[in-house]
Amino acid sequence: MQKVAYSYIRFSSKEQAKGSSLVRQLEKSRAYATEHGLILDESLRDLGISAYNGRNAREGALFSFLTLVRAGTVKPGSYLIVESLDRLSRQTPSKALNQFLEIINAGVTIVTLLDGQVYSAESIDSNTMQLFGSIMVMARANEESATKGRRVADAWARKRARAREGQRMTQKLPYWVEYNANRTGYKLIPERAAIIRRIFKLTIAGHGAGAVEKLFNREKVPPFLNEHWAKSSSIP
Fold first, then answer.
1. Looking at the chain, which terminus has fewer C-beta neighbours within 10 angstroms, N or C?
2. Which residues are catalytic?
3. Collapsing DSSP states into helix, strand and coil, what is residue 65?
């Protein structure tokens, strides 16, 4: 009987969806499955979801996969194919390692296409250096994300400092604000400003982002950016 391989694809920035990240990861997974005679499941995709804060493992497609592993629906002998370990997690090494070990101790083999590693309980038991190597990859992924986070925080701190001095924080205006005719000042877009005021009122009244999202989509309130309202766009 052919074994099943689950291709897990993740990237944290929605901008990456416009590039080749999805196609690249998927093509590599398909090639590996074909080469090794595996049935490929391509349903696991966390697009625009961070692994630094563990969101993908709490509520994303990876969470769904882990739930199936725990329930025994994903059978021992199955494969989980990822581009690299940082696709699974960018959390601290201890948290990333716990997740990694949970998967392989359930009998699922993890394949990382970027470095050609094949991790299983048997392989790390017989080759301790492979386990050490995986921990180093996890630690580096976490440090890269932490460094990026610090840089972003510092950049916004500088922008806020300039704003307090009367300078613009960014060239991009909020979706409910536009330049005046001669671009010497700003003005509200009335219909969009009204929506923002309503969001604040709903939030103060105790409605969460999900409730606002569902309400606006049900009422067909015109979104500012995408075709539908989403949680990320329903919080001012």
1. N
2. 12
3. helix
| pLDDT tens over the chain, length 236 residues | 789 999 999 988 665 555 577 888 899 999 999 999 999 999 999 988 889 989 999 988 999 999 999 999 999 999 999 999 999 999 999 999 999 999 999 999 999 999 999 999 999 999 999 999 999 999 999 999 889 888 888 887 887 887 777 676 677 788 898 888 887 778 899 999 999 999 999 999 999 888 998 999 999 999 987 788 876 654 44
- CA dist 126 → 64, 92, 120, 131, 224 (Å): 30, 25, 10, 10, 55
CB 51 within 8 A of CB 87: yes
Please count the CA atoms within 13 angstroms of the CA of 219 that sit on its side-chain side. 10
Give the residue from 119, 94, 85, 97 showing the smallest Cα distance to 8.
85
Three-state SS at 187: strand
Q: Which residues pair with 187 in a beta bridge?
A: 178
Helices 93-105/128-164 angle, 10° precision: 140
User: Nearest 5°: CA angle at 234, between 232 and 236?
Assistant: 95
Helix (H, G, I), strand (E, B) or coil at 11: strand
Residue 99: closest CA among 127, 67, 73, 74 = 67
Query: Can you tell me the distance from the alpha carbon of 212 to that of 23, in angstroms, rounded to the nearest whole number?
Result: 33
The 10 Å Cβ neighbour count of residue 87 is 23
Whole-prediction pTM:
0.66
In single-letter form, the type of residue at position 181 comes to A
CB contact set of 118 (below 8 Å; sequence gap of 6+): 109, 110, 111
Yes or no: say if 223 and 207 are a contact pair by the CB < 8 Å rule: no
